[in-house]
Amino acid sequence: MNELHAAERTGPDGVRQRNLARVLRLVHVDGPQSRAALTEATGLNRSTIADLVAELVREGLVQERAPEASRRVGRPSPVVASDPRVVAIAANPEVDALTIGAVRLDQSIAMRARIELDGLISPEDTAAMISAQVDSWRAGGLADARIVGVGLAVPGLVRAADGLVRNAPHLHWTDAPVRDLVAGATGLPTTVGNDASLGAMAEHLFGAARGVDDVVYLNGGASGIGGGLIVGGMPIPGAGGYAGEFGQNRPGIASPADRRAGDGVLEDEVSRARLLAAVKLLSADEPTLAEALRTSGSVTAAEEVARQRRILATALGNAVNVLNPSVVVLGGFLATLADRDLEALEAAVAAQAMPANTEGLRIRTAVLAEDRLLIGAAELAFGEILRDPSAIAG
Description:
Pfam families: ROK
Organism: Microbacterium lacus
Family: Belongs to the ROK (NagC/XylR) family.
InterPro entries: ATPase_NBD, ROK, WH-like_DNA-bd_sf, WH_DNA-bd_sf
Distance between the termini: 7 Å
Structural class: alpha/beta
Protein name: ROK family transcriptional regulator
Number of helices: 13
C-alpha cells in the first residue's frame, strides 16, 4: 500500500486514488452498476472507467459479470458488482447478548451469531469473544473471505477522536479502550462508534432515510434509547461525538398515571425491559419480542404498549420542534411500538408539535431492521478502503 495516506496524496496518484474511490463507493452504495452507468455518474470517459474497474478487479474489491439480455442496439456494457469475498466484522455488545456479524461490501450479512449473556460483558471478554468467533468463521464459512477490519456499535458515549468508550452506563464501561483490545485480540484494524449514530448512518445510506437530508433517528435497544442526527445530508456527532442522547432527556408525561419511574429519563419510561416483562420474557432478540407483543392477548401488554406510545409521541414532538426533520426513523423496539399503528403515532406527534414543523414530516421504521447496527458498524470498518481502495492490497 502507498505509505502516504489517501487524504494526503497529490498529483496524478491523488487523482487516480480519488477516482478509484468514487467508482468503488458508487458500487458499494448503489449496488451493481454497468460500466456505462459508472461513466455517466462520474463524468469520466469510457476508457478511464474500464481502467479503474480493471484495477479494482485486480485488488479483489469488485467483480465484472456479463450484462443481462437487452434490446438496446450496440454492445452491452459489463456489470460491476462488489466482490462478495470482501467482508467486515461487525459487533454490537449489549446487556443481554453480544451480536457479531460478517457483513459483505454490498451490505448483505454473510454470517451472524447472537451470543446470549448471563451477566454484563466486560471490554476484555468482548474482545476475546469476537476474536474466537472470527477464528471459527475463518475455519469455516469465511475461509475464502478477505476480512478488512472490525467495527463495533457500542451503546454509550464514544469519543470520536480515538474510539475510547467514555461511558456505556448499562454495560458499566468507563473509559474502556475496547478498540485497542479488539484490535489486539483479532489482529484486525478496529473502529468504534455509538450504536445509534451508526444506525442513523446505515438507514441514511441504505434504508428508510436514503436520499433524505434532514433526519432524526432513534434507536431502542436493550441498553435504552439513543439517537443519531443527519442535518443537511451530514451526520452531526457533536463536539466530542456524543450528540443524540435522546434517551437521557426528561420525558413530558401528560397523565401522572403513565409515570413509572419517578423522576426517570425517557429510556426509563419507554423501555424494552418493561415490554419484555409485559409478555413474560426474560430476554429476546428484536423479531421475537415483536412477535410476542403482536400475538399476546394480554391486556397488561396492550396497555404497556399504549402507555409507551403516548410518551414516545411527546418525545418525538419535542425533537421535531427543535430539529425540524423531514423524516424520523425508529429502530429496535421503538419500531415495534410504532408499527402497532404508524398513522396514529404520526397524528399524536403532529398534535404536540408546531404545525409548520410537521409539514411533510414522515415517521418511518428502520428498513434494515435488526441488521441496521451491524451494517452501520461495518461501514466504519469499510471506511479506509472506501477512501483508498489500495489500502486493502498486500
